[in-house]
Design goal:
11 helices; 2 domains; 8-stranded antiparallel beta sheet; single chain
Length: 354
């Protein structure tokens, strides 16, 4: 699948609601920052230098494929995409919002299955990312480690024997690794324990962010938990620590869901039923309302209160209802109200109603 096809297809592998602990862990992501030796950091690059970086990466991914690395990697300069297409890549979590700034100097590489992406000239020259469904941090790290090794056969990274990999932001110096999990935690929200649990996570050196990472707020009871420290620990230490903490959060969330079923079953059944009714019959729906209702519906699916909607469709809809996809579907720029109408129509159609 080419990148042009990617922006027309709402589905990505990470949305499949598969993998370990998928009832709570929506996805796992591992991302590493790398810079090329003897080249200015991206914020100091000229347009010519930026093009040279992209060209170097293009050569490196070609050599990586030939050397047994990931296959079917497609590179495109962001300036070749429309604003809507660029935003869709953000909505699918394949690139960061920061990559859209000064986009004419930037590019992206995406694998055919959308598991691997490489952001070029974001905060660092390269941001290698692997995104998988469920709790698969080790598997994601293995994929990134392989790709990183293959690229390094062609590219000379900026590296210091004492400090490790050199990055634009000091907090990424060392391994350059950021590992994160996207968690669906409606149970903890409903029993009013979410602040306590996430507060404990922060004390362990982890950070909690919203649906689209740094600077965004949580919506739809979805939270991203990631490591803060990249220096002084091995990549395996970072991954294992996050897996351990994630396991504790998963257990807490499941305990909260069981308590809700045991003590407030009618309330939960009503909440899920109302969400299903509105999603399948509403004619106008805001993004905020849709995300909240889809979160309630996903809770109902995980608790087996409703079995006619697959969990992967719910995750896919959470991306499809975003503004860029709705504009893409409409084929033109539309008003906020028109998006609310298209959003409601899209949800009904995907859920089998007209």
């Amino acid at each position: 699948m080419s990148i042009k096809e990617t922006v027309n297809n709402p589905h990505s592998h990470w949305m499949e609601a598969s993998g370990p602990e998928a009832d709570v862990v929506v996805s796992s992501r591992v991302r590493v920052a790398r810079n090329l030796n003897k080249s200015p950091f991206p914020h100091l690059l000229s347009e010519s230098d930026a093009r040279d970086i992209a060209h170097s990466v293009r050569l490196a991914i070609g050599n990586a494929e030939a050397g047994g690395g990931p296959r079917s990697l497609d590179l495109v300069e962001l300036g070749e995409l429309t604003p809507v297409e660029r935003q869709i890549l953000v909505e699918k979590h394949l690139i960061s919002p920061d990559l859209l700034e000064n986009f004419n100097r930037k590019a992206v590489v995406i694998s055919q299955d959308e598991v691997i992406s490489i952001m070029i000239n974001e905060e660092d020259h390269l941001r290698l990312q692997c995104l998988l469904p469920g709790l698969q941090l080790k598997e994601a790290w293995d994929s990134i480690n392989l790709l990183d090794d293959e690229l390094e056969k062609t590219l000379e990274y900026a590296y210091d024997e004492e400090l490790g990999y050199l990055t634009s932001c000091p907090t990424n110096v060392g391994t350059g690794l950021r590992a994160s999990v996207m968690l669906h935690l409606p149970g903890l929200v409903l029993v009013n324990r979410i602040k306590d649990v996430l507060g404990s996570v922060s004390k362990l050196g982890l950070t909690v962010r919203g649906l689209y990472g740094e600077g965004t707020e949580a919506s739809g009871d979805l939270f991203q938990v990631s490591n803060q420290i990249t220096m002084g620990q091995t990549e395996e230490d970072i991954i294992n620590a996050l897996i351990s903490v994630t396991g504790q959060i998963v257990n807490s969330e499941r305990a909260a869901r069981e308590a809700l079923l045991r003590e407030r079953r009618e309330h939960i059944e009503d909440r899920v039923g109302r969400a299903y009714g509105l999603l399948t019959h509403a004619r106008i729906m805001s993004s905020e309302e849709a995300v909240r209702l889809l979160s309630d519906l996903r809770l109902g699916v995980s608790l087996k209160l409703i079995d006619i909607i697959p969990a992967n469709l719910i995750t896919e809809l959470m991306v499809m209802i975003r503004p860029a996809f709705l504009v893409k579907k409409a084929g033109k720029d539309i008003s906020s109200f028109a998006r609310d109408v298209v959003r409601a129509t899209l949800i009904r159609e995907k859920m089998g109603f007209k």
